[in-house]
Specification:
252 residues, mainly alpha, Helix Hairpins, four-stranded mixed beta sheet, 4 strands
Length: 252
């Protein structure tokens, strides 16, 4: 920075801190600090860690629910298979008993065909029931192992909760301190200037900028020599005017 560009910060210089420009810059600095803290609060590493722990627990719960649902499905399927198997065995026994009483070859052949069909269906039911039982046993073992992870997952989430709460509380304390100082700073600014400040801040985020050399440090655009002369004339009494480039309140 050249000697021409060097400037005193009215927000910290004891000779200018009590001017209109100085008070507005103090207010802007406090608002900027508060904005930065709020952004930092939303981007905390502890928040990311908490989200990861929460997602891990949610995934674990979904997996647990899926395994329990599958076990219920298999249990229902096996109960249905037991009932169907019992009916098929009863039918087969009835047909076998009937076969012993028939004499006609054609009737015997028909009964033997029905017995064979019942036996085939019974084999299919037994095979599927065995497969369901095997899967249910495997799933129950997997569920038991899965349940063993619950305590560690919930403890990790609890630690993440605590860490996030502490980090947020630290920032909230800083914000509370800034808010107190911000209230005092606003009390020192004329209502008309506060209204203008709030309007510009709402539109642009930063309401007050400084003239650094030939440049507004709000929009980072250079002012012409004529614009600088005009700005200095307009700011002669208060130390503040409007940037002709961006419309911010400009401390000169």
């Amino acid at each position: 920075m050249t000697a021409e560009e060097e400037t005193t910060d009215p927000a910290t210089d004891p000779e200018t801190a009590d001017t209109v420009a100085g008070r507005l810059l103090v207010l802007q600095r406090l608002d900027t600090e508060a904005d930065q803290l709020r952004i930092r609060r939303e981007r905390l590493a502890e928040r990311d860690a908490h989200a990861a722990r929460s997602a891990a627990l949610t995934e674990w719960e979904q997996r647990r629910a899926a395994m329990r649902a599958r076990i219920d499905e298999l249990t229902a399927a096996m109960e249905t298979a037991e009932e169907r198997g019992a009916r098929l065995r009863a039918d087969k026994q009835r047909l076998e008993a009937q076969l012993k009483t028939v004499i006609a070859p054609r009737e015997a052949e028909a009964l033997m065909h029905e017995i064979a069909a019942a036996s085939e269906q019974l084999d299919e039911v037994d095979t599927q029931e065995f497969a369901d039982l095997s899967e249910a046993t495997t799933t129950e073992e997997a569920l038991a192992a899965h349940l063993g992870d619950e305590e560690a997952l919930r403890a990790a989430l609890g630690h993440a909760d605590d860490a996030l709460a502490r980090a947020v509380a630290d920032i909230d304390r800083e914000l509370a301190d800034i808010d107190e100082r911000r209230g005092a700073a606003r009390d020192g600014v004329e209502p008309a200037d506060i209204e203008k400040y709030d309007r510009i801040r709402g539109a642009l985020g930063v309401a007050v900028a400084q003239l650094v050399g030939h440049r507004c440090d709000g929009c980072h655009l250079d002012l012409s020599a004529a614009e600088i002369d005009t700005a200095k004339e307009e700011a002669a009494s208060t130390g503040v005017t409007d940037c002709p480039q961006c419309g911010r309140m400009l401390a000169v």
